[in-house]
Amino acid sequence: MEGDSVTLNTDVTEVRKDDDVLWKFGAEKSLIAKMNKKKQIFSTYDDVPDGRFRDRLKLDDQTGSLSITNTTTEHTGVYQLDISGAKKSSKTLNVSVYARLPVPVIINNSSHCSSSSSSLNCSLVCSSVLNVEYQDKNTYSCVLNNPISNQTTH
């Protein structure tokens, strides 16, 4: 969810002294973090790509795990971890960050009303891209949802 933090784990309890740990992001595999204990390198490159990681990356100097704070939907994507040294390992993580959903509003579009001798017909519009659903007894609902949350107005 936007605004949350996520930690990408290396799955090691401690990085060996001679290991290089590299974190890359996206199809371009832009380098966003690098660690080498022997050379005392503990660096995050939060200005690439396009500054989306600025002031958001934290590298754990024991495990090499990478934390991203205050996430936005721009942090959705593929992250690649490469550890090289005595043993080589690599893993890919897919991260999905979802936007917080607003509470939808049902709007009576009175310019689209028509009346006959027995009824008044009006169109209702949901403030999102979605349609308004008729429930029963003149009750309507508008639902916004994504894979982790939903918002409903009746």
Write the layout of secondary structure elements.
Layout: E1 6-8, E2 20-25, E3 30-36, E4 41-44, E5 57-59, E6 66-68, E7 77-84, E8 89-95, E9 106-115, E10 120-126, E11 133-134, E12 140-146, E13 149-153
Antiparallel strand pairs: 1-6, 2-3, 2-7, 3-4, 5-6, 7-8, 9-10, 11-12, 12-13
List keywords for this structure.
154 residues; mainly beta; five-stranded antiparallel sheet; rod-shaped
The Cα radius of gyration reads 24 Å
- List segments where confidence is low: pLDDT < 50 over at least 5 consecutive residues: none
Strand order of the largest sheet: 4-3-2-7-8
Average pLDDT across residues? 87
Helix content: under 10%
Q: How much strand content do the residues show?
A: over 45%
Tell me the major beta sheet.
5 strands, antiparallel
Distance between the first and last residues' Cα: 25 Å
Q: Counting H and I runs of at least 4 residues, what is the number of helices?
A: 0
Number of strands: 13
SS-based class: mainly beta
Q: Give the overall form.
A: rod-shaped
Order of helices and strands: EEEEEEEEEEEEE
Instruction: Give me the oligomer status.
Output: single chain
